[in-house]
Amino acid sequence: MFKGTWNEFLRYINESKKKIVCFGTGLMAEEAFKHREIRESVICCSDNNPDRQDKTILLHGTRYPVIKPEDIKRYLSDETCILVASGYYKDIIGQLHQMKLPDRVEIYSYPQMKISAPSGSREFFENRILNECLREYEAVLEQNHISGKQMERLVEEKKRFILGEEGKERPLVLPRIMLMPTTRCNLRCKGCSSLLPMFKKPVDVDISQNLQDLRVFFSAIDECIRITIGGEPFLYPHLKEVLEYLLEQEKVLGILLITNSTIIPKEDVVCLLKNPKIMIEISDYGHLEKMSRLIALFESQEIFFKVLTEQTWTDMGGVECRNRSKEELQFSYLNCEQSRLMKGIHNGKFHTCARSARMFGLGAYESEEDYFDLSPEDPVENIREKIKKLYYGNCADSCNYCDLGTLPNKVIEAGIQIHGGMHKSAYTIVNREEYEKLKQQAVLKEKYDEG
Predict the structure, then answer these.
(1) Whole-model pTM above 0.85?
(2) For residue 28, what is the enclosing H or E element?
């Protein structure tokens, strides 16, 4: 098996002009096909799913034939290799070996290559910091209706800023963190990533503590593209004060609130939500009546929001110890979206991920390697180095109590209540763009009928 990094593989494919048979046609394949070198080199795909075999599949804008695994041999030669791009990569590699392919056949594992860059390397920085920052920045620009050439120019400027000047210390720019001011939520969802149903006595973090944590954090960084406010944010009694602080903070470019759609925010909060720096994601769990009232309020106040429809979650499992090896922990951590994107601030501490903070709050585990205290007495440079250590690390003990970074993922339905009790409407709201089209069609039909 090839032990190099993904970038090294792309260079190899480009230079050798190798053709590729891609085993896998799901989301991971779509991710790999974002790269031109892959799209131009793949001659066909293969999949164990009979429903996809002997058909074509669209991957990043191009259609490819999908063959049965037993037909792979027909496409192999000295100029061909196999790329396994699936969460079931271990099983598939075993399957390929059982097929007794010629010894010369090269097999490459996308999941393993994409996390193999050393933590101090340029590739590691680009994958886990730079690219994530630019994705978050594009989201901020989109909510401000910036696109096309203007977006390209601004993204390129941001990229140069994040990379820094030659010979100088690189700016500490972070893609996103989550502030968790409360453990309260009015829902009790199965598979809640924040583990909120497990808190028997939910509490609000004191507002003075939250503001102190933010001051210490911002004193040590150069920029954070976006901040997410976690828990059910509209239940936190001091959300107004938090938003006022963040809106005045130049080092944060966007503020993201994620709500379960069942809580109407207070009037003083609504006034702040109009700020173009804020975006709200409304999770559609099928509670149409409550969600409709919230959407009507936001539309009337011209508040920027998106409705997340047809959601699924990755099942992270319980908080019991998995007894994983160091190698397994490193894979889980480096493959995990939260480890890249969602460091967490909660009650005076900065955690390696949001789930780590929740598990610490529950007393389910503790690791001094996974967090540090946001102490105002600690020199700024110390805080800065501690933040870097968490972002540039390649492992976390919290991965021994979570399945998010393991493969294959188990997908579950979002928003299902543990004990019932929350009435789910029979119909859910349609996509906002579709909704607007339906309204236009209704107006045209009405005019036609009148005419």
Answers:
(1) yes
(2) helix 27-32
